[in-house]
Write a sequence for this structure.
């Protein structure tokens, strides 16, 4: 299951890196997105992998209005549980004007071309 949210990219956090138990290098970066909702409107997403980290700051800038498609994950470590929002697609929001997203009105089709 994937979810999506649209909001303003507020801040890039520092890049984290390390070495896995298998000896492979890893890299991840977190970033903050604020929505227009009244409550619970700040989200901290992360991207994992060198290519995704490099592309994050290459194509997105702070204060851009972005649409983030993400998965929610949960990991257990020493009896504690940690939830993460893993972004797998980040794009500029369609219809954003001066950083403010516009709302599309639904179209109504009144055709009576029923196939039966």
């Amino acid at each position: 299951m994937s979810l999506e949210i649209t909001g303003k990219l507020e801040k890039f956090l520092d890049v984290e890196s390390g070495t896995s138990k298998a000896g492979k290098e890893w890299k991840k970066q977190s970033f903050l997105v604020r929505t227009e909702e009244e409550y619970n409107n700040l989200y901290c997403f992360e991207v994992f992998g060198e290519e995704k980290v490099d592309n994050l700051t290459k194509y997105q800038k702070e204060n851009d209005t972005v649409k983030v498609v993400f998965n929610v994950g949960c990991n257990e470590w020493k009896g504690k549980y940690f939830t993460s929002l893993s972004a797998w697609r980040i794009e500029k929001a369609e219809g954003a004007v001066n950083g403010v997203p516009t709302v599309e009105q639904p179209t109504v089709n009144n055709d009576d071309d029923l196939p039966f």
